[in-house]
Amino acid sequence: MTPKRLAFDRYVPYGERIKHLGEVRPDDPALTFVAQSATTRLTWAELDARSDTFAAGLAARGIGPDSMVVVKLRNSVEHVLTTIAVWKLGACVVPLRYDMPARERDQILALARPDLVVSLEPGAVSPEEIPAKQDPDWRLADARPGKAVCSGGSTGVPKLIVDPLPWGNPGAVAGTAEGHALEAVALGIGFRPDQTQLVAGPLYHNAPFGWGYWGLFFGHHLVVLEKFTPEAVVDCVERYRVNFLFAVPTMMMRIMRLDGVAERDWSSVESLFHGAASCPRWLKKQWIDLLGPDRVNELYGATEVPGASTISGGEWLTHEGSVGKPVGCDTRILDDDEREVPVGEVGMIYMRPHYPGPTYEYRGSDPAPSTADGFITVGDFGRLDEEGYLYLADRRVDLILSGGANIYPAEVEEALLEHPEVFDAAVIGLPHPEWGQAVHAIVQLTAGSSLGEERLAEFMRGQLTAYKLPKSYEMVARIPRDEAGKLRRSALQAERT
User: Fold this and answer.
1) Domain architecture of the chain: domains with CATH
2) Global pTM?
């Protein structure tokens, strides 16, 4: 299938686009929200009309261009209606975890200085209070900026990353370098207009938020899960004939471990694309076997958008472990003195976008390190091969230095997860008087498993070189990942030192 172009012949604000779709496709499904108790379906006409009532209610509270609105809700119809309404008014959305601890929440609110907080918490405006019974005077506006997301990164110190681009036709004005770069990224991961997209992750996370709401702009029927479960994902793929879905490796693993998953109907899926964390090679091979190489795609990028890389399953099979070639940017691998390292050596990844102007604004942090000629790093490490394919390594803060050797936690975690009785794993370095740090494995077993440390250690001896093997194991009831599948190794380390 030849992918459709995404570019418009002019820049179109987000609210204008939703209103247009409500007029030309009034009875087509726009949003299906799947909760455990019930399913809610909105057509394009209903989505436009109901988001108008939310926009009117927000306008009555003083929200307009240049306003900032925090949306602190779990996945819901109200999350979608509120977000679209904010963009219709030309304001900026800050999606936050609905269950964010008070201390971290207050730090983010101090950075964002929002004009309104939409949440079920005391003192905030609940979604039920927003819709206006009467339509006050308001008009469609252009959201510049339209999105700001929270990130603690590897440091655990919250910061806000503001996207300076207008939130409409991606890439700002059609035909610009921004538009060409973002279109190339989208097409590279199998995104096209008018698909059915499954949003299985939390909308406070940048990838489900960005690709989900971008999908609505391009006419997607958006199927949104209240909460991820592997069973719900497979059921929705079959029931709604899903074409496009994003998953992190944790989700991919849990889906793949469902009984009978290979016998389910995956024929509608045009692209499973993944990112946000390193994917074990054995797991990716299983998905390629299930869907075929042309339907498994990977994206490496950052919220700051200095650049990105993409790779198809077919390319990956000839460049195992790679996250692809750069798209819309130049890439260099530099050492601590900003000198380019030889091909194949690990260093810090620097990217420079092909379009001018800032790609992000930090609140609560200094700008990301950059070179004099405009290359930016967000702290990720990796290497390039002779063909220009990028391979990731762990961040410096997660790197384990044991006896003078560099040990990458993701590699050890990948080996642990190959054991069929290991449900999840996290690897950190703990202080050691002789080696500096010792590899420590935190392991969550599958339900009913009686796997002990000795048997697991024996298994690992067949997986990795001796110096990479965990020196200690810790069996836990649950690895503390968030709904997006992410964990903070630094927090796990701090708890144990």
Assistant:
1) 14-277 (3.40.50.12780), 294-393 (2.30.38.10), 400-495 (3.30.300.30)
2) 0.85
